[in-house]
Structures are given as C-alpha cells and as structure tokens.
Amino acid sequence: MTTPFSFSLHHTDGQARTGEITTSRGVIRTPAFMPVGTAGTVKAVQMRDVEATGADIILGNTYHLMLRPTAERVAKFGGLHKFSTWKGPILTDSGGFQVMSLAQMRKLTEKGVEFRSHIDGSKHMLTPERSIEIQCLLGADIQMQLDECPPFPITEEASLESLELSLRWAQRSKDAFADMAGPHQALYGIVQGSVFEDQRKRSAESLQEIGFPGYSVGGLAVGEGREQMFRVLDFTTPVLPKDKPRYLMGVGKPLDLVGAVERGIDMFDCVLPTRSGRHGQAWTWDGPLNLKNAKFVDDETPLDPDSDCPASRDYTKGYLNHLFRAGEYLGPMLLSWHNLDFYQRLMAAMRAAIAEDRFAQFAAEFRARHREKS
Fold first, then answer.
1. Does residue 101 surpass a pLDDT of 90?
2. Are residues 210 and 339 in the same domain?
3. Is 175 within a domain?
4. Do both 228 and 105 map to the same domain?
5. Where does residue 78 rank: exposed (0-12), middle (13-18), buried (19+ CB within 10 A)?
6. Which residue among 59, 84, 153, 240 is least crowded, i.e. fewest CB within 10 A of its CB?
7. 120 among known catalytic residues
8. What ranges does the record give for the region RNA binding, renumbered to this chain (predicted)?
9. Are residues 91 and 117 in the same domain?
10. What would the pLDDT profile of 112-143 be if each residue is shown by its tens digit?
11. How many domains are there within the chain?
C-alpha cells in the first residue's frame, strides 16, 4: 500500500519546530536541509555518500532536466530515483527561478514563459501544466507550483502584478497536479510578495484558500540581505498554517538556517555546500575555511575529528590544501562531501536543541562561535 504524504509536528520551542514529513519513500526529519541535485546528481558526491551524511531528501531541478536529458528520457529509465540511484524522497522545483535567471530571450505571458535554452538556444514553453507534467515524469515526491520569481529590488506595483500572476498559476498548477499526480505525491504553493508585508500576507492567505499540503517562501535570497530576509520571515511564517510544512527556498549559509529555523521554517535547500566545496571552502562550526590558503600547507589536523564522515575526519587540511593547489579532482569531491555532512550535523543539532527546549541557547552559542569570514 502506498503511504500518503503527511506532516506531524512533534515539538516547538519558541517559533522553532521539529517534526516529520512522511512520504512513500521515507520520512523527512524537520528542520531538514535538502542537498541540491540540479541535473540528477549532487555535484561531486555519490548518492550513497549523500545518504551517509544523514540527508533524508534531495532536490532535483525541472528546468535543467527538461532540457537535458529531458523528462521523457528520465521517465523511460523509471524516473529520477532509479536514474540517479537515490532511494529516498525527491523534491523538484518548478523551473521558474532558472527560467528567469538562466534562460535567454524570455517572454512572460499569462500562459507561461517562452524562452530559449542557455545550453543550445532551442525554444521552449514552460506553463504551469507543463511544469507539473515534467515533475510527474521525473517521479518527484514533492512538487512545486510554477511561479514567477521577481527580481530585487522591485516596485510595489510590479511585485503585486507578479504575485497575482503566481496565484493564478498556483491554481492552474493544482488543477494539473490533480489530473496527473499520484495519491502519494504532494504539491506545495509558493508565497511571493518581495519585501512587502501586505503582499506576503495576501499571497499566503490566497494560497491557503486554494489549499496545499505544504507552503514555500520564495523570492528571498535574491539580493535583499539577511536582515531583510529575516524581517520578511517575521511577518510571513505566522500567517502560514501550523500543521503544514514551511519551506524557505534557496537558503543558505549556516547562520541563515539557524535564523530561519528560529522563525519557524522547516525545510531548506541551497547549492552552497557543494559550490563552496568545489572552490576550496569548507564550512565548519567555527565558520568557513579557505583550504587554498597558504596557512594550511603544513596543517596536520582534520576538518572535524568528531565527525563520522571520512572526508571530515580522515584527511588533514594540509593534504586538502595540496589537492587544490595541484588541481586534483579529489579536492572538490572531499570538500563537497564534508560540507554536506556539516550541514546535516547542523540540522541534527538544531532538531535536538528544539526537542530539549534549549534552541535559544543553541542559537546564541552558534552565533558566538561561527564567523563567516576566515
């Protein structure tokens, strides 16, 4: 029997929450960080190693997979799970953000977005219906409505116009999902409204009238800065239902995650752990380290002797420094693996702190220790 999607809230500590999302492919412990598998792979890390870090779910990308190798081809392989060998739940985004940020010659209409591929210039049309069709072909357990992700800064008038379009697309996405998806799959609505309080509330309330099993906060981490992002969350999450998961899209640095959990967010994704790893940056409890720096040439200590992850525990900083200076592929692979492990250890530590009613203390101690510049 297929397990239906559900969310159970286990404990709250202030606004911070811990719980579980149940899917047919496994349970997602929240707060959860989703490693990003843009093109069917978490860059530079094998799926078995992603799983070993403690990740319960990964993210796939509709835009990239529709262009290459195509969603239809992935479906012939049995869906994204079999294609990539990831056995747990997969969340797919709608492709809307990438169309706005990567695609060429975009034309936005009520119907959808017409664009040319950044890969080969081929012409495509992404509508709410086509986005859902692609996500269903991929076999995603959690899917996203198609929305327009507006730029920042933006005027109130332009933001409102974009918000209204996203709400109309939300209804169309839900209608298409009802026709195409299975009973074990779920569709999230996406709250927009830039940094405007009245618009965020309007978006959240309107999406709840349409009705979704989960709600995402989109349109942040696009240049508004951490203080402004937290301000938006301060007035947005209280408007969202307490019995549904809340997903902050595209965020972020460790301090972003702690601050957002503090404000009631349950789910996150970001390319930062693997992108940083490919460029020689390791995230640690004390902040980021640039392993390319000459000060690590003779450093005989590992990144984290207390970790169970081999990349964190078994290799010295001096060796990692050597790998990057020598241009060896193993350097980005090990740091990406380490960074994913650190992010999962951070999420586990936050879940434990919430369950034990000491999250405020944990957050204060983390902020005192973690320095973003190194």
1. no
2. no
3. yes
4. yes
5. exposed
6. 153
7. no
8. 250-256, 274-278
9. yes
10. 999 899 899 999 999 999 999 999 999 999 99
11. 2
67 is a domain residue: yes
On the question of pLDDT at 104 being above 70, the answer is yes
Q: Which residues of 244-280 are buried (b: 16+ CB within 10 A; e: fewer)?
A: bbbbbbbbbbbbbbbbbbbbbbbbbbbebbbebbbeb
Domain boundary among 244, 270, 296: 270
Range name among 146-155, 200-209, 273-282 with the lowest pLDDT average: 146-155
Same domain, 330 and 217: no
Amino acid at position 164, single letter: E
Residue 269 among the catalytic residues? yes
The answer to the question of whether 8 is labelled as a binding residue is: no
CATH number of the structural domain spanning residue 229: 3.20.20.105
Measuring CA to CA, which residue among 42, 3, 49, 47 is closest to residue 22?
3
pLDDT in tens, 203-260: 999 999 999 999 999 999 999 999 999 999 999 999 999 999 999 999 999 999 999 9
**Active-site pick, 93, 266, 304, 341:** 93
In DSSP terms, 186 is beta-bridged to 142
**Local structure of 338: helix, strand or coil:** helix
Flag whether 96 is marked binding.
yes
| pLDDT tens, residue by residue, 329-369 | 999 999 999 999 999 999 999 999 999 999 999 999 999 99
Query: What is the average per-residue pLDDT within 300-328?
Result: 98
Considering the domain architecture, whether residues 67 and 144 belong to the same structural domain is answered as: yes
Is the per-residue pLDDT at 1 higher than 70? no
Maximal C-alpha separation, the chain:
61
Domain hosting 325: range is 277-369
266, 269, 304, 341: the active-site residue? 269
**Same domain, yes or no: 222 and 325:** no
